[in-house]
Design brief:
- The structure is a single chain.
- The protein is globular and about 60 Å long.
- The protein is α+β, with helices and mostly antiparallel strands.
- It is 25% helix and 29% strand.
- The strands form 2 sheets. Strands 1, 2, 3, 4, 5, 6, 7, 8 and 18 form a 9-stranded mixed sheet that branches. Strands 9, 10, 11, 12, 13, 14, 15, 16 and 17 form a 9-stranded mixed sheet that branches.
- Acts on leucine, isoleucine and valine.
Length: 362
């Protein structure tokens, strides 16, 4: 399939090269942005149209813009990497495109064709390739998103939408290497329920998690973990990451995709890599009381979370109103570190890619 054509409107006042170099020395995460953005419009009358790369800047929105009232919005997250040979690559962007379409279906929004999704990202990265940080763990974090842009106050799917991609240079998520985080078990709030939007990557899911995340911070924890909405017993996911449990026999368990948790691309990649190495991976329900019992008995030796931003994050301690328990030594485990190393090596073109996951371009 040929790449779609994007009209390019160069930013008339880009960040000066010396200032960009200064900023990229320590980009942090999610606070620094590149010169351009991708944009495509959709309407009932025209379908997808007006695809372009333009200067990144504020959006002019009417106070009655539908998304401000009914939260019809979806997004994705992926990264562009600079490879050792100077090329640029994305990691499994077709999976992000698929999940974006599935999120759109759930939120009664138009489905963006995969070639437009990937083409918009390629076009933006090519325009702002100089913003990819040249440092260990550096990448260009990409945020495609779409929202209802029609001006109206009726409760119905909108007839106009705006799709955009913005880019944010990012360093390593945790400076000095991955640390083991402490997580808080939410016993009052739930993230999603059967029949809800848990499997869609929409802003409302994250908005609903923030009060629980704030509670976790007050309790001295880094992240919150949610239990199922029906029984308040089964472990589901963190506010934005999937969970894995490693046992003393070398096997791994991760909660199943039942419609209430996000089908993570990093999650699926780790399952594939683990099974290739002969590790038994079971997608099955795992209870919070069993988690504690297994950790205390030594049967559970590692727990880790995974997602696009931090890739793989070890979990060292779990706290709740009933107390706390430590997993293994309380630090990163061997299987956790090995899977992370294998995955990041493939992402950055430093190891063979038998699955064809690395999407090179430019």
């Amino acid at each position: 399939m040929s790449s779609p054509t994007f009209y390019v409107e160069a930013n008339p006042a880009p960040v000066a090269a010396n200032e960009r170099t200064r900023l990229l020395a320590d980009p942090g995460f999610g606070k620094l942005f590149t010169d351009h953005m991708a944009m495509i419009r959709w309407s009932d009358a025209k379908g997808w149209h007006d695809a372009k790369i333009t200067a990144r800047g504020p959006l002019m929105l009417d106070p009655a813009t539908a998304v401000l009232h009914y939260a019809q919005e979806i997004f994705e997250g992926l990264k562009a990497y600079r490879l050792a040979d100077g090329g640029i690559a994305l990691f499994r962007p077709e999976e992000n495109a698929r999940r974006f379409r599935e999120s759109a279906q759930r939120m009664a929004m138009p489905e963006l064709p995969d070639d437009l999704f990937i083409g918009s990202i390629e076009a933006l990265v090519k325009a702002d390739a100089n913003w990819i940080p040249d440092l260990e763990g550096g990448s260009l974090y990409l945020r495609p998103f779409m929202f209802a842009s029609e001006v109206f106050l009726g409760v119905k799917p909108a007839s106009e939408y705006l799709y955009l991609v913005i880019a944010s240079p990012a360093g390593a998520y945790f400076k000095g290497g991955a640390k083991a985080v402490t997580i808080w078990v939410s016993d009052h709030y739930t993230r999603a329920a059967p029949g809800g939007t848990g499997a869609a990557k929409c802003g409302g899911n994250y908005a609903a998690s923030l009060v629980a995340q704030a509670e976790a911070i007050r309790e001295g924890c880094d992240q919150v973990v949610f239990l199922d909405a029906a029984e308040r017993r089964w472990v589901e996911e963190l506010g934005g990451m999937n969970l894995f449990f490693v046992f003393d026999d070398g096997s791994i368990v991760t909660p199943p995709l039942t419609g209430t948790i996000l089908p993570g691309i990093t999650r699926e990649s780790i399952i594939s890599l683990a099974r290739e190495q002969g590790i038994t991976v079971r997608e099955q329900a795992y209870a919070i009381d069993q988690w504690e019992a297994d950790a205390k008995s030594g049967r559970l030796v590692e727990t880790f979370a995974c997602g696009t931003a931090a890739v793989v994050t070890p979990v060292g301690t779990v706290k709740s109103r009933d107390g706390a328990f430590t997993i293994g030594s309380g630090g990163p485990g061997q299987i956790t570190e090995a899977l992370k190393a294998r995955l990041t090596a493939i992402q950055r073109g430093e190891a063979p890619d038998p699955h064809g996951w690395v999407h090179r371009f430019g």
